[in-house]
Specification:
The chain is built from 20 helices and 18 strands. The chain is α+β, with helices and mostly antiparallel strands. It folds into three domains: about 80 residues, no CATH class; about 350 residues, Transposase Inhibitor Protein From Tn5, Chain A, domain 1; about 60 residues, no CATH class. α5 packs antiparallel against α9 and α6 crosses α18.
């Protein structure tokens, strides 16, 4: 009602209105100040402009400031912040200084998801056992949000929070508090991951009957590896950096790509040696019937037996060229393929009887088969062009025979010169577009087995996200505890952005770019300071709606300048 009254006055007088403060001195010497809405009106007799009071708000200490804030918000919503600032700049009626502007949207969304998923609650519960006087939970969130929005060192995070980001509930976090929060995070690693999993699983009603597990490696920018069994060790590098020490990272995700658990091992840890620990760590998580999906690097007999303990099951990839007796028999079996979803054809094969019985699913992708054929024909053509130029048994012959691509299709003739092995080509043609799976669960259909293994790509995509968007590597931390804590922060960030991607159907890169265009501006004038965000764009509205996240307030704060007594 007050807004309509003021707007009506403005339209009637068509003049500039302003808020003014007047004061009166009482007999006892005290000063009373009053707040008024006024405008300047020309007095022809006095030949000057005089203030005319349009509305008395009352004594300063009795003014309803919350009502004034709502009034300012209503007027700004009507005019828009751009039009308001332009008007003030053009007229000089109420000049404002533009102090700073920081991205708001990304951190706001991540913080709302952080709270919705129960991560904030889990941390606060764990913190009750400690007597921290610093905002540990906010520090952990700030570091996780930084990985998702603008990855940098922990020293950089200190400045980022203070100068370049809007982290709800905190204005700045000193570096030492960030390190202290990392130590707390690692101390509660197992319980945190378990409780976060429970919270997320209940909230999202996750299907956790199948877990996908794989490992990757991340390197360190140092020359010497750790001694005495430290974490930073040289090993098989999946980053193609065998010259640098590394750590092995393990990740388990659901069929929806939600990461529920992460692990860190020394860099010289072999893939096949970690399955037992993974199985052990997931005991007691109330996962029900867990079917673990493993890549071909994990399918040793010891690993598979370990997975079957306590009623567990597996889907494992088999190497087509392994030479194992059962694999050879499975590939030779005849039978018709059944067409299923995602351009896949499947054929179920059982090898052996009784306890030696093994169930295999042979999967064929026609499109991939065509690509395999085209690639092989290109290689054969290149060989046909090169081979006539090799005349003697020299270094070139050895290199060609040992070549990982060309050597597969070559054999030596009677003169010890390489020639194309046509029989080998015919054997390879039989494997075009195929991969072989082995499962211990007879209740799964061939289609579920094939599609389940295909979802292992979700883990690979999660690793790509960790390494590229979240910049997991290279790691600059020196202490082993800080390295492990750094991985936990990346896991928390991955959890948040994967939820956001699943709900919106957009990539995090796209979401981040759109959300970060929402800025929080700080303005200063003679009346005080105001922090106000930019208007919500249609694209941002769509994201907020898809994520079920409430938009941030238009006005974050109004801090009037205190008046001195006259």
């Amino acid at each position: 009602m007050l807004y309509l009254l003021l707007y009506g006055w403005y339209m009637w007088y068509n003049v500039d209105m302003y808020i003014r403060t007047i004061q009166r001195k009482n007999k006892d010497g005290s000063v009373v100040r009053y707040i008024q809405l006024a405008h300047n009106q020309w007095d022809p007799q006095a030949r000057c402009a005089k203030a005319k009071v349009l509305f008395n708000f009352g004594r300063e200490e009795e003014v309803d400031r919350e009502a004034l804030k709502r009034l300012v918000k209503s007027i700004n919503r009507f005019l828009g912040p751009g039009e308001t600032l332009r008007y003030e700049a053009e007229t000089g009626a109420a000049p404002l200084k533009f102090i700073t502007s920081r991205p708001l949207g990304g951190a706001w969304v991540l913080d709302r998801l952080w709270e919705e998923l129960g991560i904030k609650g889990v941390l606060e519960t764990l913190l009750k056992k400690r007597q921290y006087k610093t905002p540990v939970e906010r520090a952990i969130f700030a570091m996780a949000a930084n990985r998702a929005l603008d990855p940098m060192s922990k020293r950089g995070v200190e400045e980022w929070v203070k100068e370049d980001a809007v982290i709800p509930g905190v204005e700045e976090i000193p570096l030492q508090q960030l390190y202290r929060a990392m130590d707390f995070l690692l101390e509660n690693e197992a319980e945190l991951q378990k409780q976060v999993y429970y919270s997320v699983a209940n909230l999202l009603n996750l299907e956790v009957d199948i877990l996908y597990f794989d490992t990757t490696s991340t390197y360190f920018e140092i020359e010497d590896e750790d001694e005495d069994g430290g974490l930073r060790r040289r090993g098989h590098s999946k980053d193609h950096r065998p010259d640098l020490p590394q750590a092995v990272i393990g990740l388990a995700v659901t069929r929806d790509g939600i990461p529920v658990r992460c692990w860190v091992w020394p860099g010289n840890t072999a893939d096949i040696s970690v399955v037992e620990q993974v199985k052990k760590d997931l005991i007691g998580w109330k996962l029900g019937r867990v079917i673990t999906v493993l890549d071909r690097g994990f399918n040793s007999e010891d690993n598979l037996r370990c997975l079957q303990r306590a009623g567990g099951h597996y889907i494992a990839g088999e190497k087509l060229r392994s030479g194992k007796e059962n694999t050879v028999q499975a590939l030779k079996r005849g039978g018709r393929y059944q067409t299923v979803r995602d351009n896949l054809e499947v054929k179920e094969i059982v090898v052996g009887n009784g306890e030696a019985r093994e169930r295999y699913i042979l999967v064929r992708n026609p499109e991939e088969a065509a690509r395999d054929k085209a690639r092989r024909e290109k290689i054969i053509k290149e060989l046909e062009e090169q081979l006539p130029h090799i005349k003697t048994h020299a270094k070139a012959v050895c290199e060609l025979m040992a070549h990982p691509v060309y050597g597969r299709y070559l054999k030596l003739d009677s003169r010890s010169l390489p020639k194309i092995d046509r029989a080998k080509i015919r054997e390879e043609e039989k494997l075009d577009g195929k991969y072989l799976l082995r499962t211990s669960d007879d209740t799964l259909s061939a289609e579920d087995v094939a599609l389940g293994y295909k979802q292992l790509l979700l883990v690979e995509d999660a690793f790509r996200t960790l390494k590229s968007r979240l910049e997991l590597r290279p790691v600059y931390h020196r202490l082993e505890d800080r390295i492990r804590s750094h991985v936990l922060l990346c896991w928390l960030a991955l959890l948040l952005i994967r939820i956001a991607e699943n709900r919106t159907g957009q990539t995090w890169c796209s979401l981040r770019a759109t959300l970060q265009r929402m800025q929080l501006g700080e303005f200063s004038g003679t009346a005080g300071q105001v922090r106000q965000r930019t208007e919500t764009t249609p694209a941002q509205k769509q994201i907020f709606k898809a994520l079920a996240v409430k938009e941030p307030p238009l006005l974050f704060s109004i801090n009037p300048t205190a008046k001195k007594n006259a």
